[in-house]
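call fold(seq) -> tokens
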Amino acid sequence: MAPSDQSRHSLVPGFLYSSKTLSHLNNNTNHELPPSSSPQGGTNTKSPMILSPKEGIRMFSPAYYAACSAGGIFSCGLTHMAVTPLDLVKCNMQIDPVKYKNITSGFGVLLKEQGAKGFFKGWVPTLLGYSAQGACKFGFYEFFKKYYSDLAGPENAIKYKTIIYLAGSASAEVIADVALCPMEAVKVRVQTQPGFARGLSDGLPKFIKADGVSGLYKGLVPLWGRQIPYTMMKFASFETIVEKIYKYAIPTPKEQCSKTMQLGVSFAAGYIAGVLCAIVSHPADNLVSFLNNAKGATIGDAVNKIGVVGLFTRGLPLRIVMIGTLTGAQWGLYDSFKVFVGLPTTGGSTPAPVK
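ret:
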């Protein structure tokens, strides 16, 4: 099969863009990158750089990845901080289910013991940690999605797009969790050990004094175990759901929909993806909470204490509500930021069939 004018360029895998963007490319053929090698071993050719609709940010330029990283900070940091009360109750239900029997009693116990201000205990490490994670998660996802598409080539990038979504998101999350782990460790200790610290400023020095700097990364492997499946599900299911919504639920092509409708689709698809994420990653979430709360604890200790069934069920209903809302809001905010800076919303363009 002879590739089309768009797909023959290794740097522009067609399924990543809407037809409107590709049409824009045809009208801007004078914008080119320096010569680059074909990932399939061909001779050096010049590949065009796609412009965003407002021609302000070149797609897949350093400015594009910086914008995606900024959108990740905006979406992840703010949303995780906003649900700190839910996260606080969830963590305590995982650590002490006798005291924190359910959602209602959990909020009641916290209100009685710490007052209303106690509901936002640990908000600073939450904001900083998830802002750093969001920057890496979204920025590197866009990078790796593009990189793996280039390696696969135009036809395989379309044929195996779900695998590319999974590989790109997993690669991004490995990096993102290294950025998140220290703040996550302090956050859990502050939230689940009464009297340990008021917040980050006194909690971080006390944590390092008690566990050492290496202790900040004690929960990294369980964090990977929680976050990598979560993020793979989050991005791959989101991309798939958005595509299906535009294909089956909305009779109008994405390019003809208003930005408000497109952002509504992003939120709805994000919420559904978030429910799936919560279920897939919940056992590891229980492990992270247990390990960061108990000095010297191991994964075996956690399994013996919580039980296999408990790993899958303890705190799950609250986490479904929290993660569903969180993920929907994240995708809505992330795509809102992209629209604000002149970039297209994520996903939703069904690739043309390969002939």
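Residues 177 and 224 are 7 Å apart (CA to CA).
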